[in-house]
Every structure is written in C-alpha cells, then in structure tokens.
Design goal:
The complex is a heterodimer of chains A (about 110) and B (about 120). By secondary structure, chain A is an all-beta fold. Chain A is built from no helices and eleven strands. The model of chain B has no long low-confidence stretch (mean pLDDT about 90). The chains are: A mainly beta (about 110), B mainly beta (about 120).
C-alpha cells in the first residue's frame, strides 16, 4: 500500500461548487502539508499541520480550508471553487523517525474547475 | 525573494548528451536539506535525492550526479548519457531544518526545469 494516498485522483467540477480533497498516510507522521502546483510556478504551500490541533496557513491559503480529522488524515476543501483553482494538488508528510528526516508525497489530485 | 531558483525553464538535448540542471538556493539557516524531484508526464513526484547542509560530498547514482557547493549556494544535477525516459520536469527544493515553530519540514520549490530528451 502507498504511504500517502489522495482521493480523488482526478476531479472536474463547476464554478461555485464545494469540493473536498482527501489525504491519508500510514507513516505515522505528525506533520502534513497541502501544496498546489501550477505550470511554471513549482509547488506552493497552501496549508500545513504539525499535529491534530495545529493548523497553519501557507502562502496561498485564500479560498481554501483544511481539516485534520486524525493524525493520519488531512483534508483540503474549496468552499466555492473557481476556475483559477484548476491545478495539481499534492499532499505530503514529514517527520523525524529514528534520527532520520523523512518526507513523502502523495500521487497528486488533478482538479479542473470549469 | 525566491528561496530556490531554477533559472533554466526548458532544456532540450539529444539522447546520449550530458545535461546539467542548475539550482541556486537562499537561506540563513545553517542546517537545511536540499532535494531533487522528478515529475514525469504522469504527474507524480519521484524523489531523487536528499542532501543535508553538512554533507558537501558530491554524489553519484548511476547516470545521475549531484554537485553541492555551499560557497555558491548551488546544488546542481547532472544526467550523463541522457535517455528519452529522462524527459520530465525536475524540481529542486529546500527545507530549512531549524525549528522556528513553523518552517521545519515544509519545502520551498523552484519553478522547475522541463527537460526534453530527443531520440
């Protein structure tokens, strides 16, 4: 099984719709992240969470919200989707394990807002 | 200011040529990590290498090699004898490991370099 899974993998939605992207991890990491990738811009941080009770905004959080339902689950919501939120979204985890720094990315969710 | 700069937006080479992808980073931390990821057309991010700031030894893995130079804040990536399967977007990234309460673990990405290898 993959260490970090994202659902759905692809989604087409209409402007104004609410949509949730889900992320689950089996690594036992406390730290989880949501990034957005746009062509030519690299990946930019939307939100991050250092544990269930700790949620922080990244550089591009406007129009997004998140929920950390458990250590293993971190969901990203678009309350009212707009076309410029069309992008590839990645979930990631990181932590120190046994003295070594680890980081894992999910496979990505391709979102299209029409 | 960008913390990671990949000045080359696109590079095209012919198979078997060597190619170097440049990465320049900026940080005030003394402890940090540098990464390279490959993103093939399928979209997933493939981890290639992680290097911490205290290890300046160059590394070679098959046809891949990395040149880390703290003096110039660069972490360049060379593919020797390129192949068509190397065609992808390559990202360089920085993680500042100093725990200031909010930055540990997140990655700062460059904008990526699109590498196209022609047969």
């Amino acid at each position: 099984d993959a260490d970090v899974t994202q659902t759905p993998r692809n989604r087409i939605t209409k402007t104004g719709k609410r949509i949730m992207l889900e992320c689950s991890q089996t690594k036992g990491h406390d730290r989880m992240y949501w990034y957005r990738q746009d062509p030519g811009l690299g990946l930019r941080l939307i939100y991050y969470s250092f544990d269930v009770k700790d949620i922080n905004k990244g550089e591009i959080s406007d129009g997004y919200s998140v929920s950390r339902q458990a250590q293993a689950k971190f969901s990203l919501s678009l309350e009212s989707a707009i076309p410029n939120q069309t992008a590839l979204y990645f979930c990631a985890t990181s932590d120190w394990q046994g003295g070594s720094y680890e980081q894992y990315f999910g496979p990505g969710t391709r979102l299209t807002v029409t | 200011a960008q913390k990671v700069t990949q000045a080359q937006t696109e590079i095209s080479v012919v198979e078997k040529e060597d190619v170097t992808l440049d990465c320049v980073y900026e940080t005030r931390d003394t402890t940090y990590y540098l990464f390279w990821y490959k993103q093939p057309p399928s979209g997933e991010l493939v981890f290639l290498i992680r290097r911490n700031s205290f290890d300046e030894q160059n590394e070679i893995s098959g046809r891949y090699s990395w040149n880390f130079q703290k003096s110039t804040s660069s972490f360049n990536f060379t593919i020797t004898a390129s192949q068509v399967v190397d065609s992808a977007v390559y990202f360089c990234a920085l993680s500042e490991a100093t725990d200031r309460g909010s930055t540990l673990g997140r990655l700062y990405f460059g904008r990526g370099t699109q590498l196209t290898v022609w047969p």
